Amino acid sequence: AHPRVAHVNYPGLASGATKKIVDAQMRGHGGMLSVVLDATAEQATAVVDRLRPFSIAPSLGGVESLVTQPITTTTHHGLSAAERAARNIPDSMIRLSVGLEDADDLINDLTQALDTV
């Protein structure tokens, strides 16, 4: 865990509130997750911009690792701040789709980007 990570949304987390349901419905948990940073929206954008093996993408499907910041580029771009708050969508959330790159490379990349915030 990195000190700038406030919350991780991932179906396979042992601490996840829906773990029992997820385990009953899924055999694996996939490579998609979202991370809420202890940061401003601008700082989250800076983290996304510093990632190198991850490519910024409007969708999160493929064999390469992809990243998006929903409030700036995709699914939640058209929602007002009040609408995002009502849906519990923090401005500092980023979504990651982990691809086939080496896990250590991805971890190191995330660490270097988070260390700059």
Description:
- With 117 residues, this protein is α+β, with helices and mostly antiparallel strands.
- It has a single domain (5-115), classed as Aspartate Aminotransferase, domain 1 (Alpha-Beta Complex).
- The protein has helices at residues 19-25, 41-50, 70-73, 81-86, 103-115, and strands at residues 5-9, 32-37, 55-56, 66-68, 93-97.
- A five-stranded mixed β-sheet has the order 1-2-5-4-3.
- α2 (41-50) packs across α5.
- The mean pLDDT is 88.
Q: How many strands in all?
A: 5
How do the strands line up in the largest sheet?
1-2-5-4-3
CATH superfamily: Aspartate Aminotransferase, domain 1
Uncertain segments = none
Strand content: 15-25%
Helix/strand-derived category reads alpha+beta
Tell me the number of helical segments per DSSP (H or I, 4 or more residues long).
Answer: 5
- What is the CATH top level name? Alpha Beta
Largest sheet: 5 strands, mixed
Query: How widely separated are the two ends?
Result: 15 Å
Mean pLDDT across every amino acid position = 88
- Number of individual domains: 1
* CATH topology (fold) name: Aspartate Aminotransferase, domain 1
As a whole number of angstroms, the C-alpha radius of gyration is 14 Å
Order of helices and strands: EHEHEEHHEH
Any guess at the CATH architecture?
Answer: Alpha-Beta Complex
Shape estimate: globular
Relative helix content: 25-40%
